[in-house]
Amino acid sequence: MRTHVLGEGRPELAVVVGQHGDEPCGERAMERLLADESLRLSGAVLFVVANERARDAGERFVDVDLNRAYPGDPDADAHEARLASRLLEVVDGLPVLDLHSTVSTAEPFALYQRLTPRTRRLLEWTGLDRAVDVRTEAGGLASHVDGVAVECGRKGSEAAVDTAERVLRNVLAAAGLTAVGDGELAGERAGTVDPTVFEVFDRVDGRGYEFLGENFHEVPAGTAFARRGDEELVADEPFYPVLMSTDGYEASVGFRARRLGPLSSLPDDDRLR
Fold it and tell me: Which of 79, 23, 16 is CA-nearest to residue 53?
């Protein structure tokens, strides 16, 4: 793990990149910002390049998935379990933007695990029009910080790098750390976006299925959404696929979600007020 501070003073935001070693979009977007001599910040941002060992190996992880290893253990045998503990110490007290990529969809979206006022602001500041509540998936970084993860696009694509950079610039502008510029993805000004929220309620397990639907498009009850040979998975109730794909997970098709409505209609989590 290594860190960079962009700007002067005490960091007001942490940006985590490279939790998964085979998702380079966040680190490449970070490098673009660090190399931009025209970029002037009124404060400071902490960048954390998380899993360098997995990146150097070209693998998602070395021992275990880092984004399922939190809070971690400094004395663990697994590399990522030790790393998770260190990373939480580094970002302690800061809102966190966590950049990822996926094989399931080219369209970017945000994810969160606890809706606090700072998480809400980050969701608005990304400029993205969709957000997903994934608190059913334990162990993620966003379950331990006020934070938002962003799936920036397809893994390995230039489009994902471009999106990661735009999201970064949009968040910096909306947070008042830079002037509003061309980083905006939506809204008249950075920070005005009110994303539609989807809530994951079920993981669809199984190996070797072909996904037949389209993420974020409703699957009506009685419709087949995945197939393996002559076997079909049929929706027993309407749902919205999230992170579903033919080959995205080793033993899972992806997730079923319900549409909750605009972020502005949802209260903060009572337990976190």
Answer: 79
User: Over the stretch 142-164, which tens digit does the pLDDT of each residue have?
Assistant: 999 999 999 999 999 999 999 99
Record the tokens describing residue 134, joined without a space.
């994934």
Count of the separate structural domains present in the chain: 2
Q: Which amino acid is at 227?
A: R
User: In this structure, are 232 and 190 located in the same domain?
Assistant: no
Considering the domain architecture, whether residues 51 and 186 belong to the same structural domain is answered as yes
User: How far apart are the C-alpha atoms of 35 and 28, rounded to whole Å?
Assistant: 11
Distance, CA of 235 to CA of 199 (rounded, Å): 17
Domain boundary pick from 174, 196, 218: 196
pTM higher than 0.85: yes
User: What tens digit of pLDDT does each residue of 164-183 get?
Assistant: 999 999 999 999 998 655 44
Q: Which of 145, 164, 196 is the last residue of a domain?
A: 196
